């Protein structure tokens, strides 16, 4: 699915941004970036700050992909991936990646602040409540692991959990005060504006058809022009195969684009709002089939989920999420959703983010597994340093080779059935 079936809330409430030109004719830059989402734009901003001539090429409009459609939670951890696993898998680079992840939410909020980006930012904290007593042990293990690495996080017991949520459906959990939430489309557009102020060049509505090596550099081709550059960053993640099936197929086939849905209630009255997550924290629980929600600036409750069978998707996802919300928060009543929209997240088979060097000076990162908001902004800083010549041994970028998923097209159609496994696994004690 290339576009959401209904305009997102973020499109309705975010100020319009002027359209950048189409890439036409011959252009030259030190670095070319493909993809106008958070990773690409953060990289462009940080490169421009370093004095590099950088050009970014986006196939549709800035924020058109997952960066502008997601729930907007700013989470300083990875999904289903503990810090010890990153360190064991990636060694010293994994240790640096752990440090980047734990500081990523703080970095996003401070960057938005320093650049004057109005993105409805609320650093109200992120809470991961345990959905069973057995998963409370998992929360305790996670808090221990992150605090041993100097992260700002702690446990909340059941009483504190009930007070934070306004619900008795969870048993306690891990709280991190550096997290929170933003309007993701406003953040993405704000990063684009900040990048251009710093000197970056952005082209929109310019789908890239080919990236090829030319001598010591690279050529990025679109239907109407080309960009010649010394180095390239492919920053398309879950949308790597959406606009071109032949661009970098080994990357597109190495991740699974999973369709997720978001929806927004009408604004809650103050009595309801004060009784449901009164501190306005971002919340996503320990389930594989997540329960997650947060407020926007207009007191709409933003929640979402996934479906196994796509038939009558909009009405069925609204009922599913409505039932979950009213089950957890009886005081809410039956919510009315004004907006329902969808988009892809990039999921890897090992649930780790993957970093690839595709040629001399040609790099990509894919597979944020639903935690890309905070991660992508910090990765932009790392990629900018790499592309500007900083030694790899100083950076949080562990390299692997792309591993295409067998029978990718079939696996993609079957990916929704993974929800059955997650729902089954959610009923079992977690592996610690």
What does this structure look like?
This protein has 432 residues and is of the alpha/beta class. Helices cover 33% and strands 22% of the residues. The chain has helices at 9-13, 38-49, 83-114, 133-147, 158-165, 184-198, 249-252, 270-275, 313-328, 372-387, 408-414, 418-425, and strands at 25-34, 54-57, 73-74, 126-129, 154-156, 173-176, 180-181, 201-203, 210-214, 217-221, 225-234, 256-265, 282-284, 292-295, 301-305, 337-347, 354-359, 362-366. Strands 1, 2, 8, 9, 10, 11, 17 and 18 form an eight-stranded mixed beta sheet that branches. An eight-stranded mixed beta sheet has the order 5-6-4-13-14-15-12-16, sandwiched between helices. A two-stranded antiparallel ribbon has the order 3-7. Strand 1, helix 2 and strand 2 (54-57) form a beta-alpha-beta unit. Helix 2 packs parallel to helix 6 (184-198), helix 2 packs parallel to helix 10 and helix 3 (83-114) packs across helix 10. The longest helix is centred in the N-terminal third of the chain and has 32 residues, at 83-114. The protein is globular, with a radius of gyration of 21 Å.
């Amino acid at each position: 699915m290339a576009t959401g079936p209904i305009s997102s809330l973020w499109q309705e409430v975010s100020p319009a941004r002027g359209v950048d030109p189409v890439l036409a004719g011959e252009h030259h830059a030190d670095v070319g970036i493909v993809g106008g989402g958070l990773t690409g734009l953060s990289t462009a901003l940080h490169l421009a700050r370093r004095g590099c001539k950088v050009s970014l090429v986006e196939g549709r409009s800035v924020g058109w992909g997952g960066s502008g459609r997601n729930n907007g939670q700013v989470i300083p951890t990875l999904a289903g991936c503990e810090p010890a696993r990153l360190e064991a898998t990636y060694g010293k680079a994994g240790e640096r990646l752990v440090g980047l992840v734990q500081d990523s939410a703080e970095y996003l909020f401070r960057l938005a602040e320093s650049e004057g980006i109005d993105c409805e930012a609320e650093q109200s904290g992120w809470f991961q409540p345990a959905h069973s007593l057995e998963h409370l042990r998992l929360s305790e293990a996670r808090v221990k692991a992150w605090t041993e690495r100097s992260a700002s996080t702690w446990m909340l017991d059941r009483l504190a959990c009930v007070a934070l949520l306004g619900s008795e459906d969870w048993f306690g959990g891990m709280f991190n005060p550096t997290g929170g939430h933003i309007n993701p489309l406003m953040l993405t557009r704000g990063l684009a504006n900040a990048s251009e102020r710093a000197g970056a060049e952005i082209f929109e509505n310019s789908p890239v058809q080919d990236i090829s090596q030319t001598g010591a550099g690279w050529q990025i081709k679109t239907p109407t022009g080309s960009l010649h550059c010394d180095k390239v960053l492919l920053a398309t993640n879950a949308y790597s195969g959406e606009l071109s099936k032949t661009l970098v197929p080994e990357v597109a086939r190495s991740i699974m684009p999973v369709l997720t849905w978001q929806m927004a209630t009408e604004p809650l009255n103050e009595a309801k709002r004060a009784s449901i997550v009164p501190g306005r924290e971002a919340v996503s629980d320990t389930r594989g089939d997540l329960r997650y929600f947060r407020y926007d600036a207009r007191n709409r409750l933003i929640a979402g989920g996934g479906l196994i069978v796509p038939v009558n998707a909009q009405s069925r996802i609204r009922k599913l999420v409505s039932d979950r919300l009213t089950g957890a928060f009886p005081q809410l009543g039956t919510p009315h959703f004004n907006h329902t929209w969808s988009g892809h997240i990039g999921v890897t088979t090992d649930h780790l983010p993957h970093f690839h060097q595709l040629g001399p000076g040609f790099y990509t990162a894919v597979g944020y597994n639903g935690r890309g908001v905070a991660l992508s902004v910090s990765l932009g800083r790392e990629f900018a340093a790499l592309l500007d010549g900083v030694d790899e041994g100083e950076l949080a970028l562990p390299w692997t080779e792309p591993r295409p998923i067998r029978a990718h097209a079939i696996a993609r159609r079957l990916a929704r059935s993974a929800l059955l496994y997650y729902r089954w696994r959610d009923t079992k004690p977690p592996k610690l």
